[in-house]
Structures are given as C-alpha cells and as structure tokens.
Design a protein that fits this description.
The longest helix has 12 residues, at about 180-190. Helix 4 (about 140-150) runs antiparallel to helix 5. With about 200 residues, the chain is α+β, with helices and mostly antiparallel strands. The chain contains 5 helices and 9 strands; from the N terminus they run ββαββαββαβαββα.
Amino acid sequence: MNVDQYMQPGVTSLTPDTPLSVVRDTMDAHGFGLLLIATAEGELTGFITRAGLKDAKDWDMPVEKLSHPVRFSVNPADTLEKAALIMLANRLAVLPVVQENRLIGVITQAELLKGLTVGLGIGLEATRFTAKVRKDSDDIYHVLNVLKSHDAQLISLAQGKSGPTHAEIILRVQGVKDKDKLRGDLETALRHPQVV
C-alpha cells in the first residue's frame, strides 16, 4: 500500500507572492485550515495556517513573509506506514506528496486511515481471532498450519500488544466453517488457551 493509491492529487496551493488577502479568501472559500505554498513550477516552499493569519495587518503582503518551511513530505512510492509514522510523530493532519521536488498532492489522516483499513481487511466479511504467541518461537507457523488445515483464507495478520515474552496477534480470516473448532485447534497448537 503506497501513498499514490490514497493521496489527493492536484492539491490547491498558492504561489509565494500571493497577497495574504487572497490566502484568507481561498481558505474561507474552501474551508481550509492550512494552505501549501508552491512556486509556479510546483516547487513546495512552505505552508500557512489560518492561525498564522490572525495577526496579519497588511493584507497586501506576500504570503512568503508569514509562511513556514515544510519539514516533512513523502513521495508517491512511499508506504502508507511511512506516512503514518511521520504524521503521528509530528501530529500532522495533512502531509504533502512531492515528486522530483514538485508538489503533486497531499495525503490526509482520513485517506491514511482508509488505506490502513483496507490493508487490514476491515470491512470485509471475515472472522477475527486474537491469539497470544511466544516471542522467538515458531508459534506463528503453527497458527498458519491450523488455518491451512481448516481451508481458512488469511486476510490479514497484525501485531497487537506486546510483552517481554509474548505478543498478541490479530488474525482476520475468511472461509471458516466451524469457528469453535478452529479456535480449539489454535489453542491446542499454541499450547495455551489464549485464543478469542
């Protein structure tokens, strides 16, 4: 899952010489809280927020005088996981997408969440199991063998909480004919009753 699959292409941006009055009017017209600033050639130079306009006195001043430099961006080939880590670590609601130093789009929290939801198979008709597996063991292979013996199709596998010796795994599977039998076989394979 890459950024290009979920980004918004053709983002609204303004040039560095745009007067603050136009920035304000553009934000008002579109309901934006943030606008990216890029040259006519598409080179990303900064951003401005609605809060950054609060103290503006000269509405004819070019936006580049109040804009902030962009410290983070991704390219279309980057993974959603990379975008998520950048956005979480820096508390960003939107992340510019740049290719060859040109602004080509943005990815928002909503698009990121949609992509990760699709990747985890959330929303598909499936059975969800949570199991506790030992770290540094072959428990996960036992789980996969049990799924295979039940002709269950693995939709996703994710790690949940993790402790010093065990980790929680969350499985989403399709084609389960007998959920209770599968749960019992998983518990037996893992040698402890931790499957829910």
